[in-house]
Amino acid sequence: MAARPDTTQTDLPSARRPGTYVRGTETVDAILKAALSVLIEEGAGAFTVRRIAAECGMKVGNVSYHFPKKELLIQTLLDDIIANYDKLLERTVRQPGLDAEERLRLIVVMCLDDIAGKRTTRLFTELWALANHNEFVADRVRLFYQRVHEFIAEYVRELNPALGEQEVRDVALFISASMEGATPFLGYEKPWAQRMQAFTAIAAHSLVHLAKTVTSVEIAGLVDRR
User: Fold this and answer.
1) Which of 115-119, 136-140, 155-159 shows the lowest mean pLDDT across its residues?
2) What is the Cα–Cα distance from 163 to 219, expressed in whole angstroms?
3) What is the DSSP-derived secondary structure letter of residue 20?
């Protein structure tokens, strides 16, 4: 199976960020690590600037200086997570000598391995909860998943060039949704977590096969049968 980041950790990369982030990178990283820890360990209800400040041992004013709104924290967390996934793709999926079928299989395995970890299971379920009541968070989560869909669509397009562009996006969405839908059933400490390995094997086989073989006629026919 593909290597994955340690999903029990809350560390985020130290990177130069726009605006106030350029100054005090270590402080910003400490705030982000604390924010991630609060979301994972205590949930969306505890995700306040005051609680995050306490978690990283800072004054509320220091946290607010770098992140005037907690929505900005969410934006930066998601930006850093997608950057981490992009680096992981470069190390595992975009290696020379792999064909599109193997690259897509690796993406499926990588994503499901990630979902099996504590960080991803808890973080994203809490983000979904926040998105239900916060339009800004909902939009940032949508943009995050749009980027994931683009990763998948890249290889669907290569595997099945006869599909139209919208059909490629629909298949990529289906693959992504099929994996994310496993979270409440097979994620960390979920009821069927012990079956994640079998689920991953079935998903990698069936989703790649779908991407390779589904036709425009079949998609249109399935839509008409609804």
Assistant:
1) 136-140
2) 10
3) G
Q: 29 with 12: CB under 8 angstroms?
A: yes
What's the rounded Cα separation, in Å, for the pair 157 and 100? 9
Q: Among 132, 119, 125, 144, which Cα is nearest to 37's?
A: 119
CB-CB neighbours of 100 under 10 Å: 17
Cα gap 100→211, rounded to integer Å: 11
Cβ atoms of 157 and 163 within 8 Å: the answer is: yes
User: Which residues, other chains included, contact 24 with Cβ-Cβ below 8 Å and sequence gap of 6+?
Assistant: 66
Q: How many CB atoms lie within 10 A of CB 180?
A: 17
Burial class (CB in 10 A: 0-12, 13-18, 19+), 12: buried
In terms of phi and psi (left: phi > 0; alpha: psi -120 to 50; beta: otherwise), the region of 15 is beta
Q: At what angle do helices 196-213 and 165-180 cross, to 10 degrees?
A: 170
Q: Could you read off the pLDDT of 33-50 as tens digits, one per residue?
A: 999 999 999 999 999 999
**Which residue bears the tokens 């073989």?**
213
Model-level pTM? Answer: 0.83
Q: What one-character-per-residue DSSP string does 82-146 give? A: HHHHHHHHHHHTS-TT--HHHHHHHHHHHHHHHHTSHHHHHHHHHHHHHHTT-HHHHHHHHHHHH
Residue-wise pLDDT tens digits, 154-188: 999 999 999 999 999 999 999 999 999 999 999 99
Find out whether 90 and 151 touch, Cβ atoms under 8 Å.
Answer: no
Tokens of 71: 């929505």
Residue indicated by tokens 């943009």: 143
